[in-house]
# Entry
Amino acid sequence: MLDLSFGLIITTAVVFLFLLKYLSDKLYGPLLYFMDNRKKSIADDLANANANSADIDVFKTQAAAIISEAKKEASVIRETAINQAKSIAGEKTQKQRDGFEREYESFMIKLEESKAEIKNSLMANLPLYKEGIKIKLSQL
# Structure
């Protein structure tokens, strides 16, 4: 039925061991080497990503500080411009008020002069007006 041949078993075992050694050297060795390199590459990339993340956090804080400083400077510049505009507007309105006051005073002086002239004119012509009124009353 089944005959066992020790020579054939030994030859098969030697071929199997030789094949294991050959595949280990030619196939599994480079495959394991590639996998180890890939693991190292992934670990290095993760470390670089973490380092970049830390750098990004530092840059974000620096950018936030720069933006905050720029906002402060812009606020100071804006306040300075507003104050200058207010002072210029105040000066212009004060000049305008002074001009209006001078015009009002000159108008009031002219009005008083005109009032005095009209009063003097009426006083000078008062006898004529009285005569005119008497004549009108007598005609009625």
User: Anything to note?
Assistant: The CA atoms of residues 31 and 96 lie 93 Å apart. The two ends are 177 Å apart (CA to CA). The mean pLDDT is 91.
